[in-house]
């Protein structure tokens, strides 16, 4: 039976969508040759732990191939907390897909120094903001929008997708040169320790924090800000 043109398009879309789904949480041959490594296998929390804990909090679950924070689990007594990688990284390129809930807030934090002296990941690690810009109060604050270097530098261009859609964030840090991308749009470019950086820091909430951005090597963290958020296709290339 010959399908109508619309049905053929639909069938093609389904095939394409299926093919794309199979590519999530995997590495292409090119990526493998370049040295990329998966930080999340799409099935387990292997390679991660809750900050200052040995294991992963049960509030973080693997759902449909994504690491998802479940706020309802926290209401039922499950401890929360930011996830951090078991490994530490200094010079790297990181790629992560994220999807935020309506009114939600989270973040991708890096250069995290894990030490009981610092009770939270953000006390040492800079953050690339993850947010529902339209409905979370932080969306009205400069340098607090998706793709921003949180409270330090505003995105050069707004590139976030609507709530419910997957965004792709990339963070590249090499010899203190820090570049952020959101959905293939460069949002931030700054050199850590430069005069510009010192000025940004002096005008931020972090200006008096003794450990902030002081450790060049550290863990990568997915923030528990109390809202439902999902992360997947997390991969890193050590430079």
UniProtKB/TrEMBL annotation:
Alphabetical keyword list: Signal
A Pfam entry, by short name: 3keto-disac_hyd
Record bears the keyword Signal: yes
Domain of life: Bacteria
Annotated signal sequence range: 1-21
Domain 3-keto-alpha-glucoside-1,2-lyase/3-keto-2-hydroxy-glucal hydratase: 35-236
Keyword match Signal: yes
Family matches, as InterPro entries: AL/BT2_dom (IPR010496)
One of the record's GO molecular function terms: hydrolase activity
Name assigned to this protein: 3-keto-alpha-glucoside-1,2-lyase/3-keto-2-hydroxy-glucal hydratase domain-containing protein
